[in-house]
Automatic annotation (TrEMBL):
It comes from Bordetella genomosp. 8. It is found in: Periplasm. Keywords: Signal. Pfam families: NMT1. Belongs to the bacterial solute-binding protein SsuA/TauA family. This is Solute-binding protein family 3/N-terminal domain-containing protein. It comes from the Bacteria.
Length: 346
């Protein structure tokens, strides 16, 4: 009887208390479901690989968006991949080994002429990015003084090569007969060629120019500066098939990069942190100078201007006249991805 009584008590306990336990368990499970739903985006991030070319200011919005968590806020896991040149990155993009690339918009025109559907997700630069640097002791006064001279560009058919050939041609100087243009790379390689007299002038992007000015003040000078010539410059570029397959990711990339571009305009400390990551061997003078100039070069709104796109087309077709013009509205997705022209903020 004692055993029966115990069983009876147990049945009543489970009947009365079990209901409460079930209710508590149900509530706990519901809370876990809600918590899982809330945290699901962190587990469902879209992985995006972005090709970056060399080391220059055009990379800063991408790296800053990673640093600030802007991509993660858009539910994206962005992985940058470094390439030595735009041509290699183009092959990777077309071949599908990367999803997007930040490189010169020249490639958009070339790809479109090959029947491939490139798309600009967001612009990075506002102007041409090069200067022409010469030894100060030579006393050159203008491009016309370079007739018969040897001029260094990063590589044949590169952004720097096309810009130089276009500029010379616009002054009536034949780039194939009146001068000798050679590919010498960039950075320390180009500087060594200039210092040794292997070339009489070099096309230098801003980081290289600052190196000349800081490391050897007065030894070199800028013969021509194109950095106020409006140009579509570099941009984040993908293929239409990727955009079609990942519309939210495309929008997220554009929004995150735009936030970084806007931060560049107002937060020098954030810019300096990325510049120091890019150039760990450079001193404070370089870091400060580069940090100060970046906002002047980077687009504040991510849009590619009609004038800048037209200038890119003009320059590229001056060296590759077989290329057919491509309507900007067919390849520029910035307005569609970013919506209105209002500010995207944190």
């Amino acid at each position: 009887m004692a055993g029966a009584g115990a069983c009876c008590i147990a049945r009543h306990w489970y009947r009365d208390n079990g209901r409460d336990m079930f209710k508590r368990l149900h509530a706990a499970l519901a809370a876990m479901v809600l918590l899982g739903a809330a945290s699901a985006p962190a587990w469902a991030q879209t992985k995006v690989t972005i090709g970056l070319i060399g080391t220059n200011e055009s990379q800063i919005p991408i790296l800053l968006a990673i640093d600030q968590g802007y991509f993660k806020a858009e539910n994206l896991d962005v992985q940058p991949m470094q390439f030595r040149g735009g041509g290699v990155a183009v092959q990777a993009l077309v071949g599908g080994s990367i999803d997007l690339a930040a490189f010169a918009t020249d490639h958009v025109l070339r790809l479109a002429n090959r029947g491939i559907d490139p798309r600009i997700l967001i612009g990075i630069d506002r102007y041409l990015t090069h200067t022409l640097v010469v030894p100060a002791s030579k006393g050159y006064k203008g491009l016309a003084d370079l007739k018969g001279r040897k001029l260094g560009v990063s590589a044949p058919g590169s952004y720097s090569d096309n810009t130089l050939r276009w500029a010379l041609s616009s002054l009536g100087i034949n780039p194939d007969r009146d001068v000798t243009i050679v590919g010498i790379g960039s950075g320390n390689t180009a500087r060594a060629a200039l210092e040794s007299g292997q070339v009489d002038a070099v096309m230098a992007a801003t980081p290289d120019l600052l190196g000349y000015q800081i490391d050897a003040p007065g030894k070199f000078e800028v013969l021509y500066d194109w950095r106020r010539t409006e140009h579509s410059g570099q941009a984040v570029i993908g293929l239409q098939k990727w955009v079609d397959a990942h519309p939210e990711a495309a929008r997220g990339v554009a929004r995150a990069v735009l936030k970084a571009e806007q931060l560049i305009q107002r937060d020098p400390a954030a810019v300096a942190r990325i510049v120091r990551q890019q150039y760990p061997d450079r001193g404070d003078a370089f870091i400060q100078a580069m940090t100060a100039v970046v906002p002047k070069l980077i687009s504040p709104d991510g849009r590619v201007s009609d004038q800048g796109y037209a200038k890119m087309t003009e320059i590229l077709r001056s060296t590759e006249p077989e290329l057919k013009p491509v309507d900007k509205s067919t390849i520029d997705l910035t307005d569609r991805l970013l919506g209105t022209r209002g500010q995207v903020t944190d």
